[in-house]
Sequence to fold (210 residues):
Amino acid sequence: MTFVIISQILLLGVALSMDAFAVSVTDGLTYTDINKKKSFFIAGVFGFMQALMPLLGYWIVEIITMIVDEASGANAGKIMGDVVSWIAFCLLLFIGINMIIDGIKELKKPVEEKEAKSFSVKEVLYFGFATAIDALGSGVALHSGLSNNYTIWLHVSIIMITTFGISLIGLFLGNRITKLLHNKYEITTIIGGVILIGLAVWIILSHYFG
Fold:
């Protein structure tokens, strides 16, 4: 294993973590009760998911290659990349649109009826899955020469740690923006929805034109 390969894995980790960063900013914007423990939980979920998906992608291609042949494994990887990109697009688009609708509804309510959004474990897990599923395709890239059956574990660990750190930065940034907006959570909810819709579009564009 060379320094060049580690550097490539680190750069891949940074690239993959951009989805998690965007959603971390959204969480920091919209959750009103974020604390240190919840921040570490969110970053931990995003880091774990961003590591798990490439690992699954790698082993799916490896198993198909062993059972059939290398060409079949590569072809399966390409199909998998197309499918998961569209799944991620639909999930994030759905969440983003709902957030914008909820934010607009809150804007129309009297001040005394407005409800701030609270931390949700279920939603964090959903976000973690939605932002990481397109990383299944990166397992194909890892299988194509960057990793082998032994080094893959180290490589996904690097991706996980990188995503964890960048997600914490995103949460902090989102929380700071909320305070700058004087805790107007209906506005931050709309901003968060726009971010998720932009992320959904970016996933598709980067998959086909990146």
Remarks:
- The CA atoms of residues 146 and 156 lie 12 Å apart.
- The chain is about 85% helix and 0% strand.
